[in-house]
Amino acid sequence: MLIIVYSVLLLWLSTASCEMIRTYRGARLTVSVSLFTADCSKAGTNSGVTVSVGFLDWNNKLVYTITTPTINGKSGNNFERNTFYHFAKEKYIRIEKECTYLADNENQTIYEDCFHVNLLYFHLDSHGFGPDWKPATAYVKLFHTLKNGTMIAHATDFKPRHLNCDVDWVTGSGDTYLCRDEPWNWNVYLNAGKGLKQDTIKGTTTNCDYAGTDSTVTASLNYINAVPNEDYLIYTISTPAMIGHYGENLERGTRFVTKYDVPDDLFAKIEDACYDNAIWPIWSQSQYEDCFHPNLLYFQLIKHGSTADWKPGNSTAYLVYSRKNGDMTEIKVDFKARPNCDIDWVHGRGDSYLCRDEPSRRLKPGSSIKVHPNAVMRLLIVLALLFAADVESSSDFTGHFRGAELTTTLRVRQSQCYFIKQVVRPNTTFSFGYVDSEDRLRYHISTGKELNMDVNTFEMKFKADHKEVDIAERNCVALAQFTDQALYEDCMKFNTVFIEFTKFWKLLIIYEKVDAIEIEQEYTLSDGSTRTFSNHWNVTETDCARNQLTARGVAYIRFGKEHIGKFMPRTGAIVNENHYP
Fold first, then answer.
1. Which domain of life is it from (predicted)?
2. Where are the domains of the chain?
3. C-alpha span between 337 and 346 (Å, rounded)
4. Taking all residues of the chain, what is their mean pLDDT, rounded to a whole number?
5. 299 with 311: CB under 8 angstroms?
6. pLDDT-based confidence at 411, cuts 50/70/90?
7. What is the pLDDT of residues 418-439, one digit of tens each?
8. ∠ CA(267), CA(268), CA(269), 5° rounding?
9. Burial 291-329 (b: 16+ CB within 10 A, else e)
10. Rounded to an integer, what distance in angstroms lies between the CA atom of residue 510 and that of residue 505?
11. Distance from CA of residue 79 to its chain's centroid?
């Protein structure tokens, strides 16, 4: 999941006289909700009840929401007449940033109040008979544990008219809500909800004459590849359109924030695009990581009214990546426009853009989201040539390992020589790769876990998924240049093993000596068929003084190549494209 907050900052704002204290920055949050069912006839429900709490700003725009797990009313004694249900949910919630934005990073009162929820939202999924529900008082507590260990508790009570059994019901097939501060009408059902969407839109423009606009502005975050003179688009994320002639949006000296929760399916496509961009011609982890820092901010204006052009200030994009394990990574990217009122305008009937890394390319007009059409043509030509080469040699070259999965069996036999052994186990990690004729490592795949070598002979299996195999496969395609099938096949066969000792006694020199290593690879191809390879290495003599492994860092063995010396060759980190003679 990816949350984007795109903010255009004021250039004319003076520094606040008193800096706002971000009390809750880095805090953890536990949400406790206690729900009572009223003592009314048929007040209980068999519906599934999902409760959310949140905060609305002064324009009734949703600042944040915290959704609790759905509770099944027909299970046990949940939500029966005159019953009580309680649950607590602990989670790191990204609400502090939202409250900081709301307070413009300067209004302490607004910031503090933002952490007192003022919205209680019910969503019911109808089950069985009597789906409606009549709640009594709901008690909501937010326990904020600050970074210094201090706990701050905020309690909010939401009180439907539980003594009157004719009003304030929650509909069994929809959404309803209660507000903390506003009285509501005497109706059979509570206010109907329309879903929870964070669609807060505020406005910001520089303090230049005619800097505001009545146009509709759509800002998109993009990433273009880093190849000089060959800019082409990797992905684009369009944020909600902002209408300049609505209220005070995009007027001179105003500020806006637009927010967008990137759908999971779109983010999956973005991740795939970044993966594809980083894998050719050889895998680059740094390129993959950088791809999640947008480097192109693109404005598209649709003209409305007489005031069309727009002069934005500095722009900042905040991206928050939520990982499957609950961890969050926040990325901040600045796009700087010059304050000179004579330059860096967005044309009211076209497109313009800002680049992250190149000040000389600030706010240039662009005819399309693809920044350099000639570069796109070159890209298409390259792709066409690659496709043509594939077709031309299709009878001889087949890249059938793309999308395959790999199961590898490793067998290791240690020598009978006497060496000092470690007692701390497991301590050994294996990686396998292919080193080409120029001694360059084309790719490597790791077992990913520590193994126990404190036996004379051991055997293990590990699996690599299709993404790991794809990295190897694309590098082998590049090595074979779409023509040399034998080289491509050979490249998919491990010819080098890296052995890393991860734990050792600092006061002792600890040795291992391997007599033989055998590897069997079984690829399951995308069509369901299998391909197998095997490779092995063994010593040609039994001299205990040669070919030792020392438990310091990483050593490697090249299959089919004799290593001469007391110790096996040693290396630092395992890096593709490095030389391993």
1. Eukaryota
2. 9-192, 216-377, 405-571
3. 11
4. 67
5. no
6. confident
7. 554 444 444 678 889 999 888 8
8. 90
9. bbebbbbbbbbebbeebbbbbbbbbbbbbbbeeeeeeee
10. 8
11. 37
| Nearest in space to 158 (alpha carbons), one of 135, 133, 191, 174 | 135
Distance CA 230, CA 518 (A): 45
Residue 554 near residue 546 (C-beta atoms within 8 A): no
Residue with tokens 């001299």: 543
| Residues in Cβ contact with 191 at an 8 Å cutoff, skipping those fewer than 6 apart | 176, 177, 178, 179, 184
**Residue 351: is its pLDDT beyond 90?**
no
Query: Cα dist. 184→27, 117, 135, 161, 326 in Å?
Result: 34, 17, 15, 10, 37
Q: Which two tokens stand for residue 426?
A: 């497991």
**Cis previous bond, 426, omega within 30:** yes
CB atoms < 10 A from the CB of 467, how many?
Answer: 12
Distance, in Å, from the CA atom of 224 to the CA atom of 367, rounded to the nearest integer, reads 16
- Whether the CB-CB separation of 115 and 95 falls below 8 Å is answered with yes
CA dist 347 → 25, 301, 303 (Å): 39, 7, 9
- Count of CB atoms within 10 A of residue 246's CB? 13
Can you give the length of the chain in residues?
Answer: 581
| Cβ-contact 371, 296 below 8 angstroms | yes
| H or E, element range at 410 | strand 405-414
Instruction: Please tell me the distance from the alpha carbon of residue 136 to that of residue 279, in angstroms, as a whole number.
Output: 58
Which of the residue ranges 68-77, 296-305, 364-373, 485-494 would you say has the lowest mean pLDDT?
364-373
Angle (nearest 5°) at CA 523 between 521 and 529: 135
Query: Of the given ranges (32-36, 154-158, 480-484), which has the lowest mean pLDDT?
Result: 480-484
What span, in angstroms and rounded, lies between the C-alpha atoms of 541 and 33?
A: 72
The CA distance from 124 to 119, in Å, is: 16
Tokens representing 207 are 């303090």
Question: 25-35: b or e for each residue (b if 16 or more CB lie within 10 Å)?
Answer: eebebbbbbeb
> Residue 196: is it exposed, middle or buried by C-beta count within 10 angstroms (0-12/13-18/19+)?
middle
Instruction: Check if the beta carbon of residue 539 is closer than 8 Å to that of residue 515.
Output: yes
Contacts of 202 (CB under 8 A, 6+ apart): 249, 254, 255, 256, 257, 258
CATH number for the region 9-192 comes to 2.60.60.20
Edge-to-edge strands, sheet with 28-37? 84-91, 28-37, 135-145, 151-158
User: Mean pLDDT throughout 15-36?
Assistant: 71
DSSP class of residue 540 equals S
Rounded Cα–Cα distance for residues 343 and 355 (Å): 16
Q: How many degrees, rounded to 5, is the angle at CA 289 between CA 363 and CA 226? A: 45
Q: pLDDT digits over 173-199, tens only?
A: 667 777 776 656 655 555 555 555 443
Cα–Cα distance, 393 to 327 (Å, whole number): 47
Q: How far apart are CA 469 and CA 443, in angstroms?
A: 10
Name the helix (H) or strand (E) containing 236. Answer: strand 233-238
Is 283 strand, coil or helix?
coil
Q: At which residue do the structure tokens 């019911």 appear? A: 124
